Each structure stands twice: as C-alpha cells, then as structure tokens.
Fold this sequence. Notes:
- The chain is 29% helix and 24% strand.
- The protein contains five helices and twelve strands.
- The strands form three sheets. It has a seven-stranded mixed beta sheet with strand order 6-3-2-1-7-10-12, with helices on both faces. It has a three-stranded mixed beta sheet with strand order 9-8-11, covered by helices on one side. A two-stranded antiparallel sheet has the order 4-5.
- The chain is globular and about 45 Å long.
Amino acid sequence: MDIKQQKIQLRKLILEKRDGLAVAYRIGISEAISDRILSMNSFKQSRVVAAYVSFGSEFQTDIVINESLRLGKKIVLPKIECSSRLLSFRTFSGNVNELLSGRWGIPEPDPEKSQLVDYSKIDFMVVPGVAFSKQGFRLGYGGGYYDSAMSSLPKSSVTVAPVFPIQIVPDVPREAHDLKVDVLLTI
C-alpha cells in the first residue's frame, strides 16, 4: 500500500474514533490540556499566538483563545487562501461576528474585519491534526496547509499540538514535506 493510501486509512480510523468520543470527555480533556498550554513558559512569553477555531470533534481551543486575549496577547487565526493554497493568519478580537464560514465550513476571520499578520510575528502556534506519533510527527487533514505554515515560522516559534490520547499512534506515514510539532500535549 502506498503512503497516500496509508494516510487515508489512518485518517479515517482516527477520525471515526475521535468522533465517537463523548462530548463531556472531549471538553474535560480540552480543559486539562488547555491548563498545560497556559502554564508553558513559551506560551507565557509569547506575544502573538496562532490558534484555530475548533471544528467538529477537535480539541476545544476556546479556553486558550480567550485566556490569550485576556492576557493581552494578539490572537491570529488561519484563513485558507484558495488562490495560493496557503494559510494566512489574521487577527481575531474574540468577537465571533468577525468569523465567516470558510472552506469545509471551518470558521475563519473575515478579511474585512481583521488584519493580516506576517508569519515572522508568530511566536507560539497551536496546531490541529488527526493523528500524531510520540515524536510529534503529524497527520493532518490532507491539504498540507499546516506543514507549509510551520515551515514559514521563525526558528524561535514553538508549535504545540493538543491531542486526545486516541490520536497518538506508534507511527505516522510521512513524506519529506511532513513536519513534526515541537510539543505534543495530551493527558
């Protein structure tokens, strides 16, 4: 089986398992992992935090986003740029009226109500994904958006993946362009 097929199979398996987790369990795990993120020195020292608005059965990012804003950090959220097939990161004030339903129905910043922020300004990034190896290699949703984004960050930036235990697998099929996160957080 080629690597693309391996990725498709693993993605399907883990998404089915993650979708099957009880909502209360996902919320509880998200709260516990959020506390760990907020206590990280790299988070405390950061000024610009890239996060994402949770979608479906993903880790719930609302605590990290809201606490970042409360602490005076700049929150930036991803927007898929269809023309370039890249992610841009745009400011978010916490007002959900500043979000639009983007590609695949994922909430993203309205370009008319947000400002573009250069990758060079991001010093902490919360990274989504489907499956992760213990070494931090990730299997995303298949678009390559976050591999490209992570490769554009300054070397001093810290990438963190908050994950439910069922998302950690012995090995993730990967290609040369597949990057790993700096920190994998679970309970």
